[in-house]
Amino acid sequence: MNTSYDPAIDLMEQLLALLRRVPDGLSEHQLIRRLREAHCTHLPQLPLTDKLVLFRTHFLLFNALYRLRDRLWGERSAHLEINPLLIRLLPYQDGPQALGEHDPLRAYYLDEARLRDTTEADVVHLLQSFWTRMHGGEEREAALELFGLDARADYSAIRLRYRQLVSQHHPDRGGSTTRLQSINKAMEILDRYYKPA
């Protein structure tokens, strides 16, 4: 019998217990904060203002979330919705949620070499690439991604999601000013593409 300790499995169990207690879900920021408050030893306990610490914390969390999603799907017990702005457990359903399709984000986060090999310069490049997309030719796709929506979303769905995100990330409610600015900028971009004349 293999009794070796796997920290990723322990983190998955902590995530599952936490998400079961919050059926409406949590943002990535809220999830990290709650794990830290519970003294989770599987995430760096260093300031998230350091870009490399932020990347590693994010990567470890999403690696565990995708592994947990795969496990729950295999058990046919739940579906785990994974989005930086909303992570939540949903009832299991056969069909379109199937994990058989290629998911590039899943492939990225399950490749643990990315955690080991990513440098601070790589993280800076990733952040610059995101903002270049926001301000360049892929701005609409990046804004929709930030909102957790796809190109099929209509303007009313975009406005609803915007109000939810502003409420959730407003500094008066413990959110981040930087995140709120990103949400507002994304809404300006989406207004240009979707707002009825």
Describe this structure in words.
The chain has 197 residues and is mainly alpha-helical. It folds into two domains: 1-112; 119-197, Orthogonal Bundle (Helix Hairpins), CATH 1.10.287.110. Helices cover 61% and strands 3% of the residues. It contains nine helices and two strands. Strands 1-2 form a two-stranded antiparallel sheet. Helix 8 (155-169) packs antiparallel against helix 9. The model has no long low-confidence stretch (mean pLDDT 84).
Sequence of strands across the biggest β-sheet? 1-2
Give the % helix: 55-70%
Summarize the biggest pleated sheet: 2 strands, antiparallel
- Mean pLDDT reading: 84
Structural class label: mainly alpha
Count of separate structural domains: 2
Helix and strand string, N-terminal first?
A: HHHEEHHHHHH
Taking Cα atoms only, what radius of gyration do you get, to the nearest Å? 18 Å
Low-confidence stretches: none
